[in-house]
Amino acid sequence: MRALASIFAATAYLSLSAIPATAQDGARDGEGTWITLGTGAGPVTSSTRSQPANLLRFGGHDYLVDVGDGTAGQSGKAGVQTKAIDAIFISHLHFDHTAGLTGILGLRFQTSAGDPLTIYGPPETQQLVDGILAGMEPGATANYGVAGAAPVDHRSGIRVVEMRDGDSVDVDGMTVTVRENSHYSFPVGSELAARFESLSYRFDLPGRSIVYTGDTGPSDAVEELASGADLLVVEMMDIPLTIERMIAANPGIPEAVSQAMQSHLSEHHLSPTQVGELATRAGVGSVVVTHFSGWEKNQPGHMRYLQEIAAAYDGPFLIADDMDSF
Amino acid sequence: MRALASIFAATAYLSLSAIPATAQDGARDGEGTWITLGTGAGPVTSSTRSQPANLLRFGGHDYLVDVGDGTAGQSGKAGVQTKAIDAIFISHLHFDHTAGLTGILGLRFQTSAGDPLTIYGPPETQQLVDGILAGMEPGATANYGVAGAAPVDHRSGIRVVEMRDGDSVDVDGMTVTVRENSHYSFPVGSELAARFESLSYRFDLPGRSIVYTGDTGPSDAVEELASGADLLVVEMMDIPLTIERMIAANPGIPEAVSQAMQSHLSEHHLSPTQVGELATRAGVGSVVVTHFSGWEKNQPGHMRYLQEIAAAYDGPFLIADDMDSF
C-alpha cells in the first residue's frame, strides 16, 4: 500500500493526510489503528507532548506500546480505560518508556479488572514488574478500606513475557517480532551486553504491517525488521539542540556524566536525515515520527526537519502530535 | 483572610475569582501557590481531568501533594521539571494517588537530579517506595547504555518519612501536620486499622494556611485540622452518579465486590453538601474543590453541586480544573 510518492521530495509530507483518515474510518478490517498517546522524547517533560506511549487497537483488543508516565490518562482520552488493556509491549527499560506501567497496573486493580494482562518486554522486564507489584502490596491490602472486604490478589492475571532479538510471538492473530536495536551500545561480550537489549517491534496484522522503532540509533537490524512495512513509527530528535538544552539545564553536571549523555544522544537516537534514510532503505509505505525533541511546528527551526526527512525519503510522512490516529 | 461572604448563599461561588488572581501574582511573600495538577477522581480515567496531584510552590521550593499517574507531565505544564521537586506528600496508598511516583523517581534519575528528595506519607509508604526502587534496578543499571559509564545509585538521596495521626514536621519553614481521616473504616482494634491510615494534611506557611483533605468522608479530625484555615482544598464526588456509573461499567462484577465499592463510595467520600458543612464547621476562608467526579460544567447537573455547597457554606468556593492556580 505504498502511497503516491511525490517527485517533489521537499513537499512529499503534504500528501500524508490520507493516512490517518483511512485508519480513523476503521473501514478496512485487519488494519488496526495506531494512536500516538505520547509523542515527546523523555525524560524531560514537555508542556505539549506526553511521555512516550502508543495505543494499538486491533480486532476488538487494545494494546499499549511503551507506557511512559501519563499513559493511563492519555488512554482515557482515547476512550480506553486501563481495565480494557489486553497486553503491553515495552521497547526498553528507560523510565520515560515504562513509568506509566504503575498506573496501568494500579488503576486496573482499583477498577476490578478481571481479564489477564500480558506484558511483553526486553530482558529483566520481570524484575520491573515484580518491583511495581511489591510496592503495590500495602495499597492492595488496604484496598477500599471497607470492613470485612475479601482480600484481592493484585498479582493475579499479570504475566510477563521477556523477548530477545529475533523472537516472534502470536498475539490474538497478530504476529509480533522484535529485533535488538542500537539504543544501547555496551561492548560486545560484556556482562551488560548480555543482560540488556533495547527492542524494536514489528506488528504484522492481517491487513497492515506496522514497525515501531522504540528508541534507536542507525541499525541494520531495524532496517531488516522494517523491510517493506506499511507504516514505520519512528523516533526522531534534533540531537544538537537536545544536547545544547541538556547542557544548559545541567550547569553543575559532572563532566563524565555530561560526556556519557552526549555520547548517548549522538549515537543512540535518529536525526531527521537518518529517519529518512531508514525509511528509504527499508522501503516502507509511510512514516510517522514520534519521540520528538526539537523546535515545534510554530517555531522557525521546525521546517528544516521536514526538509531533511524529505531529502532522504520520497514517501509520505509527518511528525505526530499526541492523540493522532493512523 | 476570610473573604467577603455573600449573603446570597446561592451565588457565593461567583466571588471566588479574586483568589487565584492574588496567588498567581505571587505578590505576597509566604503565601505560596497551590496548583491543581490533576483534579479528577480516580481510578477511572477522564478525558478532561488528570489523576489526583497538586503542586505547592513556596519559598523557592516545589512540593507535590499526591502523585497520580501523569504528575510528571502535569508538573511540566507548570514549568517544573521532576528534578526540581524537593518533597512529596502522599495522602494514602490508593494507586490513583500514588502511581505517578514512579515517573517522578524515574525521570529524576534520568535527568541526573542531584538534590535529595523526601517522600512523606502514611504508614507503609516505605514499602511502596522500596518496590518502585527495586523495579528500577534493571533500568538504572543499563542507564544510558554507554560503554564504560560509571554506575549511578538510583536510591541515592531518596528518603521516606512515614507519618501518623497528629504528627507534625517542619519542612523548609512550613509546618506540616497530618490527621487520620475517614477514607478507610477498618474495625477499631483490627490489624488493618493498626497498619493503615489515610491522611489529611495541613500546611502552615508564614502567610497562609492550606488544608488538603486527600480522600475522606465526614471526619471530626479533618474539621479540627482545617479549623480556621485560609484555604481548604477538598475532595468531592457526586456519589450516587459515581455508583451508577461504576455499576454500569462493571456488568459482571461479583456482588460482594460491588457492595464493598458502594460502601466505600458512600461512606469514604464527601458529597457537595458535606463539603459545605465541613467548610462551615471548620470556618475556613475559601474552598477549592478537587478529586471531582460528576457532571461537568457544560452539563445540566453541574449547577446543583454549586447550589448544594452554597446552601451549606457562605464563603467563596469553586470546583477546580486541572492547572488552576490559587
Could you please describe the fold and organization of this structure?
2 copies of one chain form a homodimer. By secondary structure, the first copy, chain A, is an alpha/beta fold. The first copy, chain A, has one domain (2-318): 4-Layer Sandwich (Metallo-beta-lactamase, Chain A). Helix content of chain A is 32%, strand content 23%. Chain A has 11 helices and 14 strands. Chain A has a 7-stranded mixed sheet. In chain A, helix 4 (101-110) runs parallel beside helix 5, helix 8 packs antiparallel against helix 9 (255-267) and helix 10 runs parallel beside helix 11 (302-312). Chain A is globular and about 65 Å long. The two termini of chain A are 14 Å apart.
Can you tag this structure with a few keywords?
homodimer, 326 residues, alpha/beta, Metallo-beta-lactamase, Chain A, seven-stranded mixed beta sheet, 11 helices, 32% helix, globular
Structure at a glance:
Two copies of one chain form a homodimer. The first copy, chain A, is an alpha/beta fold and 326 residues long.
Summarize the SSE layout with pairings:
The structure is a homodimer of 326-residue chains.
Chain A: H1 18-25, E1 33-38, E2 53-58, E3 61-67, H2 71-77, E4 85-89, H3 95-98, H4 101-110, E5 117-121, H5 125-142, E6 158-162, E7 168-171, E8 174-180, H6 191-195, E9 199-204, E10 209-212, H7 220-225, E11 231-237, H8 239-249, H9 255-267, H10 272-282, E12 286-293, H11 302-312, E13 317-319, E14 324-325
Parallel strand pairs in A: 3-4, 4-5, 5-6, 10-11, 11-12, 12-13
Antiparallel strand pairs in A: 1-2, 1-14, 2-3, 7-8, 8-9, 9-10
Helix pairs in contact in A: 4-5, 8-9, 10-11
